[in-house]
Amino acid sequence: MNSFFARKFVVQGIFIVIAIILLARLFYIQVITDEYILSAENNVIRRLPVYPARGVILDRKEKILVQNEPVYDLMVIPREVKPFDTLEFCKLIGIDKARFDRQFKKAKSYSPYKASIFEKQLSVQIYASFQERLSDFSGFFVQNRTVRRYPDSLGAHFLGYIGEVNQKVIANSNGFYNQGDYHGITGVEKSYEELLRGQRGVQNLMVDALNRPKGHYADGKYDTVAVAGEHMISSLDKELQGLGERLMKNKIGSIVAIEPATGEILSFVSSPGYDPNLMVGRQRGNNYMALLNDKYKPMFVRPIQAEYPPGSIFKVVNALVAQQFGVINDKTLFFCPGGYRYGRRGWMGCTHVHGATNLRRSIQGSCNTYYGYTYARMIDQAGMRPVNAYKRWRNAVSAFGIGSQLGIDLPGERRGLLPTDELYTKRFKSDKWGSSYTISLSIGQGELGITPLQMANVMAIVANRGFFYKPHLIKAIGDKKVVKDEFTIKNDAGIDPKYFEAVIQGMSDVVNQGGGTGYYSKITNIEMCGKTGTVQNPHGKDHSVFVAFAPRVNPKIAIAVVVENAGFGSTWSAPIASLMVEKYLTDSISRPKYYIDRLLEANLLPGATVKPKAPKKAGSDTVNTQGEINKPIALTTR
Hints:
Blueprint: H1 2-32, H2 35-44, E1 45-50, E2 57-58, E3 64-76, H3 86-93, H4 97-110, E4 116-122, H5 124-130, E5 140-149, H6 156-159, E6 162-164, H7 167-171, E7 182-184, H8 187-191, H9 193-196, E8 201-207, E9 213-216, E10 232-234, H10 238-247, E11 253-259, E12 264-271, H11 284-292, H12 302-305, H13 314-325, E13 334-336, E14 339-342, E15 346-349, E16 355-357, H14 359-364, H15 368-380, H16 386-398, H17 421-428, H18 452-463, E17 467-469, E18 474-477, E19 490-492, H19 500-512, E20 529-535, E21 543-550, E22 557-563, H20 573-586, H21 593-601
Parallel strand pairs: 2-10
Antiparallel strand pairs: 1-8, 2-3, 3-4, 3-5, 6-7, 8-9, 10-18, 11-12, 11-22, 13-16, 14-15, 17-19, 20-21, 21-22
Helix pairs in contact: 10-20, 13-15
């Protein structure tokens, strides 16, 4: 009897233990893990994100610069995949077996139960043939999305590119981004990301055992609609940008053109450039590495990141500041014997023996001597210690936007270099230094570093006779054409308008009078005011620089052109700028074919074997290439 009861309790105990195990397992499945519910739901309901169309970007005349194109991401839920012909699968989507194995392993390690991207951005053509066989490959499905397309392949550095978010971006997005999302990485795509990206939606689809959609769950009651991103009207002129990119082909440098009355950037050329379509599609990674390793650095945004000594174009700034300080006026004469002597033995050579020279002629002939004397008056004869006079000079120059970021709506802008008095005091081990120690600043050489954007902005200031608006690339946002408040603020350069006329007359003479250093770039029936510059380059041939605005009355465009390693500003940069100005103001170009072809066909890349053609003479249109030769300067430190 006791044996019977003992067996009874043993059997009951076994059943109790089994029940406890089953209940524990059920509790684990129902509460602790989502493994089975995920598998069950994935067999019935598929939640698909609906990616919004990214906002399109237009030029100032509302012509398309970048638009969207449909592509298809191939998704996979590894647990639902059943054996199939992998070779046929690979052939359909254009990959090899090794890639298939890598991608499937990656998806499985992410989650056997959750959908993840197996292959990104299948083209419409590939998808068209693949979708007919989709039911043969259980566990796989396709998700619609769009990518960028650039119909004219223009403005790569301005527009920027998009790419897949990384973990850092996801973590910093407050839950907005998920794996597989895209965001702006450079250019206005990055600056205006929150407006361009739109808002994701969700679709809840019913699917059968063969992975075929069977309609929306609950008739779409729980679906949400994607909201497209805002479209952008840029300030860029599409035709002008195209001309600029063609003129800068096989050259290293920049073109920046600004509308002075608004600060809107009309052209933003960084050369060498690249086709922005290379940064789209399944070969994007390979294309990116090729561009990154290109010795000419096509991904470097030169208009806002390259810093050059401004050379003779800086004489315009010194002429204005000196007048504001009251140390010179439009009638001030200095005698130029072919150079400027400073300190005990210092000598700064000039381009010519100019003789007695006034302010207007100093700009026209780019007289180094005139600005040696002018700078000395500002620093040594200011009625204060030279170091304090230098601080005052530096503050006046900085009001032109030199030495600080202008705040353009692009990432990565550099501030340039406007040396402080502390830098020189540390270098000379004393604060008892005068103009002779920093005389190279009088002609825009030495430690100065200015971006092409800052050069163009200086011309906008001169065109406006003393003020500027923040340079920007997006003119208006959305259907309501909203303009950001910061772009409507007038910034004062601190120069009285009356001091501009003599300088502007000299700049007009540079282009429109025989003997001017930019006379070869004169435009019929348009009074362009400009200044050439030949910037010393310690690493090779000098850089060619030209800045200008036009017309003289009611200016519509201010421009800066830099061509690296090209020599004289009058030979290359000035003609390029004059074509850009004429094109913008008249929508045509009247210059002879040889004039244009010389610029289009020239290969000025370092190491190029094709020798550029010299400018031709046409009647009185001779080329003056002697206006801007600034010889190296030996500074005396006593």
